[in-house]
Amino acid sequence: MDKPAFEQKACYDFADLLAVIARLRGENGCPWDREQTHESLRTCLIEECYEVLEAIDARDEFALADELGDVLLQVVMHAAIASEHGQFDALDVADGICRKMIRRHPHIFGDAVVKDSGEVMQNWEAIKRQEKAQKSLAQSLADIPSGMPALIRAQKIQKKAAQIGFDWENYEGALEKVREELTELCAALDGDGSTEEEAGDLLFSAVNLLRKLGVDAEPALLAACGKFADRMAKMESFASQQGQELAKMPLEEQDALWNRAKMCKKS
After folding, report:
1. What is the rounded CA–CA span in Å between residue 154 and residue 168?
2. H or E stretch including 158?
3. Among 55, 45, 101, 105, which residue's Cα sits nearest to residue 75?
4. Topology of 3-98 in CATH?
5. Do 134-215 and 3-98 have the same topology in CATH?
6. How many whole angstroms from its chain centre is CA 129?
7. Where along the chain do its domains lie?
8. Domain 134-215 - what CATH class?
9. C-alpha to C-alpha distance for 41 and 219, rounded to whole angstroms
10. pLDDT tens readout for residues 71-118
11. What is the pTM of this model?
12. Which of 146, 143, 197, 137 minimizes the C-alpha distance to 167?
């Protein structure tokens, strides 16, 4: 890599990124980059993915481009580490995903015919099971990563169960299940059962209800968290305007500020 010429390029491409990482992890490269392993980069990958989601939610295309670059960096770093151990490299990763997308889109790259996106996903799952030699629902469920966020994992489990017909006909059945689980949680609070177990069942059934309503549980809860935090910030501001400290106000006065914060959003 010719240093002056390389650093002054008008535009860099994917091959340049590979060269940068090779230099960073090379014999005279960056001490920090050379120390990294698949395991040490786990948190970095998770953080970068969340920053991508943040940019998407903010509808900031410039931040999105930047954050996608950070995710791509993580991909290339992992590929470089694997390459150093004689396992695979970045080109193998690109080759693998191209082959996978071609296999799983027979209606584009083959003779299959589909009428809508629902059939596309049915084909996708069927081909995926063939690739993984999955012969049972149990095998399919076992392949769902245990490290997934719980809400996302719950919906994936529920979708796989629905694919074999184990599902409510409509949201009303799922809603009734939520009521049933709430009753069982109340019974557990009275000493009849495990509170943690029943609380988990209630959460799982609530996620299932959202699935039947066509609502993605993870972003729905994230939005609710954001709304709650925003209202709390408004409450604190209102209290400060009154010369008071929110934490020292009686609950009744806090409730009044909460209702005021809710009205701000509606207006």
Report:
1. 16
2. helix 150-163
3. 45
4. Helix Hairpins (1.10.287)
5. yes
6. 22
7. 3-98, 134-215, 219-266
8. mainly alpha
9. 25
10. 999 999 999 999 999 999 999 999 999 999 999 999 999 999 999 998
11. 0.74
12. 137
